[in-house]
Amino acid sequence: MPTALITGAASGIGRDTARLFASAGWQCVLVDRNAQALHQLAQELPAEGAHVPRTIDLTDPKQIASLAEGTPALDALINNAGMSDASNTPLVQQSPQQAGRLLALNLAAPAAVVDACSQLLKPGARIVNVSSGAGLSAIPFRGLYSPSKAGLIAQTRALANARPDLCVTVLCPGFVRTELVAGLIEAGRIDPERAVAKTPLGRMATPDEMARALFFLASTGAAPLSGQVLPVNGGSSIYGGSQGFAPATLDVLPLGLPLQLEVLGGPAQPWQAVSATAGAGPHYPACIDLSALHRKSGLLQAVHEAAIRFASRHSQQASLTVLLPPDTPERSTRWQDAGDGAAARMLISTLACEWGSRALRINALEVPPEVEPRSLYALLRYVCGPAAQYVTGQTLVCYRNTPNNAPKDAAA
Ligand code: NAI
Prior knowledge:
By secondary structure, this protein is of the alpha/beta class. It folds into 2 domains: 3-173, 3-Layer(aba) Sandwich (Rossmann fold), CATH 3.40.50; 259-397, NAD(P)-binding Rossmann-like Domain (Rossmann fold, 3-Layer(aba) Sandwich). The chain has 12 helices and 12 strands. The strands form 2 sheets. A 7-stranded parallel beta sheet has the order 3-2-1-4-5-6-7, with helices on both faces. A 5-stranded parallel beta sheet has the order 8-9-10-11-12, sandwiched between helices. The site of 1,4-dihydronicotinamide adenine dinucleotide has 27 residues, from helix 1 and helix 6.
């Protein structure tokens, strides 16, 4: 039975995450300050007696230090607990005490939890921090929320560098319908219509979509992403236009639908095993396009052609994942050609904005060209599939932290 420690487990994203892990046969160490909700959850989960509820205030370093006592060895540690600031008090009017509590929970606690549990982490354990889109661009009048979440992203990268023996990643959710967001809507700090209008997919996420992202990041298949950010935000972080998006009209498909995958632009055989072929029943259609992977130049054109191929096959609710070579300075020998990679990545984001209203998604993975396909199966299964229906417009960089550790394709 693999074991995961999940902080902030009593509500919202953490609660759905605990439910998903428990239903997949994991033992959960459930950490929260809300004792009542925590015990209620522990009783409701499958394999009831297996889970370990721990009532802890994560703003108190002494309580965090006690976390290791009685906690089993961990395959995954998820630092999810966090708070926002709905007071609407301008930063310059905040006392250090008011600002300090948020900082203690959102930035200091994740590091302290890792320190407290370091002896419990199994070899190759996964650590996942939950930051926010607010860590990628500033949200004013929410106290130190954005700074704390930006700090957490940088802290994650530093931990991944310091501990290459672990897989350390950071999730940046967009707007998710949880108690936290309900509170901000009630306090007038979020206007749901305007939030949706800035999101190419035209909707907020469900907590279950974040739980699925965390489940993937807590798996061994997340190894290629160590040190990276996974933005699960409906494309809100990649949109720079001024026109609002209309609310989504298509229902989200079941997150557990079978994936039906088509491989285009290269030899399908080594990639086909990403998914078992879906039968005649309902499925989520996806394409992987390989045509840009071995290009020395012309990435922009290759992505454009891949998009045209995909759009001729699918008109709604499907995904395209393009494999790109790493965008390192060594790739382009002439500075005049150095814009090609950035242009291709921005094309991915631009297409995501144009396609969002039809729930057509596009993402890219930057991978070493000789990478062993098998090492990317789990990542592709997640990004291409229905569980990632809120992921679009992103370029995820694989093996950036450990380029020499990327398993090589023997045939390359
Ligand atoms: P939530 O408010 O529904 O749940 C947070 C949980 O953390 C609660 O169970 C609460 O009791 C617990 N908690 C709060 N202070 C604590 C403390 N001092 N010690 C121990 N536990 C404490 O929040 P939600 O929406 O599920 O958010 C989870 C994470 O996702 C947070 O880090 C949040 O910043 C992040 N996030 C949420 C987004 C959203 O739209 N809901 C968007 C982006 C990021």
